[in-house]
Amino acid sequence: MANPATSIGLPTPRLQPAAVLELLKPVTWFPPMWAFGCGVAASGADLLDNAPRIALGVLLTGPMVCGMSQAVNDWFDRHVDAINEPGRPIPSGRIPGMWGLYVAILWTLASLAIGAALGPWGFAATVLAVVMAWIYSAPPLRLKQNGWWGNLACGLSYETLPWVTAVAVLSAGAPDARVVAVALLYGLGAHGIMTLNDFKSIEGDTRFGLRSLPVILGAPRAARVACLFMAAPQAVVVGLLALWGLPVAALLVAASLLAQIGLMRKLLRDPRGLAPWYNGTGITLYVAGMMAAAVALAP
């Protein structure tokens, strides 16, 4: 059967490399890459001796696994994005037909191949990350339908998993319990960051029944919950660092947290309008505290 576009004289839609890159959302790669960097710092490994593995890990966590998760999410959210972000590559038609799904599958397989090159710890972590990405966005589980569970899965995948993976890969063994505890706390705190990201999608989420926290709680209450999720784990980190005899790191994380609380007070005045502003200010302080804690935990 003839292509309908060709039969009426219109050009056949083609996959555009620039649209594929946009589908993979490079702006989202930073959090897991930074978390992997925290794991590198916490491992105490020599950077020069381990440069190839570190570079491979950064490639895996950012452009590959995170990019794959964005492609999966955009494919299964294409109807929602047609309302929230109609200019995205799939709803705009710049990635035609089934190509959005094909890119997601291809990036999944490539990620698993790169993960295997990082040894058993790297491969196991990649499998877990891939599974989390698909069940977060794809039916039947589609964890993102519930803001409580979906944001938790996302936060742990973006922050905790890359951090712990880096330590395991570079030390060729299970990470220290202190590292795991701090990585888990920062992953839990990222639940609040994910909630802030949901403010831009309230209309589409409401229409298609996605129960994000801004939808089920309303913007003001969801913002307060997000701030609590971000602040409380960091307060626990401060206490743990002090308990472990790391006072300088404890002070640095505490200073970062106090500055964030000041910014949170402004955020709560207009959560929908100021969420992007907070993402560029408060989150910067959040990840700075992460690195301070990671450096302090190095053997």
Automatic annotation (TrEMBL):
<keyword id="KW-1133">Transmembrane helix</keyword>
<keyword id="KW-0472">Membrane</keyword>
<feature type="transmembrane region" description="Helical">
    <location>
        <begin position="275"/>
        <end position="298"/>
    </location>
</feature>
<feature type="transmembrane region" description="Helical">
    <location>
        <begin position="120"/>
        <end position="136"/>
    </location>
</feature>
<feature type="transmembrane region" description="Helical">
    <location>
        <begin position="177"/>
        <end position="196"/>
    </location>
</feature>
<feature type="transmembrane region" description="Helical">
    <location>
        <begin position="148"/>
        <end position="171"/>
    </location>
</feature>
<dbReference type="InterPro" id="IPR006372">
    <property type="entry name" value="Chl_synth"/>
</dbReference>
<feature type="transmembrane region" description="Helical">
    <location>
        <begin position="237"/>
        <end position="263"/>
    </location>
</feature>
<keyword id="KW-0812">Transmembrane</keyword>
<keyword id="KW-0149">Chlorophyll biosynthesis</keyword>
<protein>
    <submittedName>
        <fullName>Chlorophyll synthase ChlG</fullName>
    </submittedName>
</protein>
<dbReference type="InterPro" id="IPR000537">
    <property type="entry name" value="UbiA_prenyltransferase"/>
</dbReference>
<dbReference type="InterPro" id="IPR050475">
    <property type="entry name" value="Prenyltransferase_related"/>
</dbReference>
<feature type="transmembrane region" description="Helical">
    <location>
        <begin position="97"/>
        <end position="114"/>
    </location>
</feature>
<keyword id="KW-1003">Cell membrane</keyword>
<dbReference type="Pfam" id="PF01040">
    <property type="entry name" value="UbiA"/>
</dbReference>
<dbReference type="InterPro" id="IPR044878">
    <property type="entry name" value="UbiA_sf"/>
</dbReference>
